[in-house]
Write a structure and sequence with these properties.
161 residues; alpha+beta; Glycoprotein, Type 4 Pilin; 4 strands
Length: 161
């Protein structure tokens, strides 16, 4: 006798795993929002670090200049006299120095909004992020300068003076 085998066809479930286009767009949107929040915060942080570095550099240069005065009883004519010529600030600009006690000093002294000189001994500053500056620090061009004022009693952004 012939046996007939009966085959049972079982339904096979195919499970697809992955992201749909909408899910992928949602993930990309979330990443974009997080980047939009994080990038400005990071840029602000790096700018604060650069300002702090410039303040530290100006402070150490002022110490060298004062040491030169102690030795020679005269302020140096340039930063080269204290082995700091060509020293760059965090924005790759050279630090600016002006000996105010020497009669042949070249360049105008830095001044506040009332046009009163900031220092009586020497000016030492960085022209800051924008790379431009004017002698009166109350202008917009000078707001980002990092400067020494009040004969060394102030050392910070010109906008805070």
């Amino acid at each position: 006798m012939l046996k007939i085998h009966r085959f049972k066809f079982q339904s096979i479930k195919i499970v697809q795993r992955g992201l749909t286009l909408i899910e992928l767009l949602i993930v990309i949107a979330i990443i974009g929002v997080l980047a939009a929040i994080a990038i400005p915060g990071y840029q602000d942080y790096t700018e604060k670090v650069r300002v702090a570095q410039a303040i530290s550099d100006i402070s150490s240069l002022a110490v060298k200049i004062e040491a030169h005065w102690q030795d020679a009883r005269a302020y140096p004519s340039s930063l080269a006299d204290v082995d700091a010529s060509g020293m760059l600030d965090p924005w790759d600009n050279t630090y600016r120095y002006l000996n105010l006690s020497h009669p042949s000093s070249t360049g105008p002294a830095r001044k506040d909004r009332n046009l009163v000189p900031l220092n009586s001994d020497f000016d030492l500053y960085s022209i800051g992020k924008n790379g431009t500056s004017t002698p009166p620090i109350s202008t917009a061009q000078s707001a980002d300068d990092i400067l020494r004022a009040n004969d060394g009693r102030f050392l910070d952004l010109a906008a805070k003076y």
